[in-house]
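Two proteins were folded this term; both appear here.
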Amino acid sequence: MTYYIFNLAPGDGPRAAELLRVRRLDVGAEDPHRDALAPGDLVLVYLAAPERTFIARAELGPGVPGGVSLTHVEEWDPPVPMSAVLSRIDRSAGARADFEVGVVRITADEYETALAVAAERAAAAERSVDRSQASQ
C-alpha cells in the first residue's frame, strides 16, 4: 500500500466537491506517479494555496480514463489545514505545503498524522456544537 496527496489547483473547491461526489479524481498524463497508482492505495485530497487544506481521504479503486476511481471516501468538515499537519511531522525529509505536481507520494506517518489531526478537529467541532446547543 502506498500513500499519496492529490494536489488540486487553487480555486478547485467546487470542482473537488463534485469529483468526490462521483468518486473520481483526475490524473495528468505527465504526472510522475500516474503509472504507480494502484487500487488500495490511500490518498488525501488537498486544495492548494491559498486554501492549503485537506478536504478528504479515500482509497483508490480501479483506474478510469484520465484518472482513478475512489472508494471509502470520507470528506472532512471542517477541512484540515496543512499547517496543523506540518507542525506535527518531521520536516527534515522535505515535507511542505506547496507542490509542483498533481500527485505527491507521502509516508505512512505523514498520512496517519493527517488522519489524527482530522479526527481531533472533528471532535472539537462536535464539542463546540454540543456546547452551543446546550446553551440555547
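Next, the second protein.
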Amino acid sequence: MAKKTKKKKTEDIVIRKDLCKGCGICVAFCPTHVLELGEDEKAEVKRLEDCTACGLCEMRCPDLAIEVRIKAEPSAEQGAKGGTDKLALSV
C-alpha cells in the first residue's frame, strides 16, 4: 500500500520588493505558476491557493527577497489546542 504524505499548506509568500530586482528566476522555477512579474517588474503572488510550498522560489532567489511561510500543524502535545510550533533558541 502506498504511503500517504501530508501536503504542506502555504500560509503566505512574502516578497520583499525592496530586495527584489525583478530577474524572474522565481517565476521561471515555480512549478504551479503562483508568481508573476507585476507592472513594476517585481515578483508578485498571483495564485497563492495553488502554492505547494515546494520552496523553489525561495531557494533560487539570488537576492533572498522571498519567504514561503507554511502553516504550522499542531504537534501531538498541542493536540486540539491549535498552538503554533516555535523554535526556541538559547544564547
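The beta strands are 10-15, 35-37, 43-45, 66-70. The mean pLDDT is 84. These notes refer to the second protein only.
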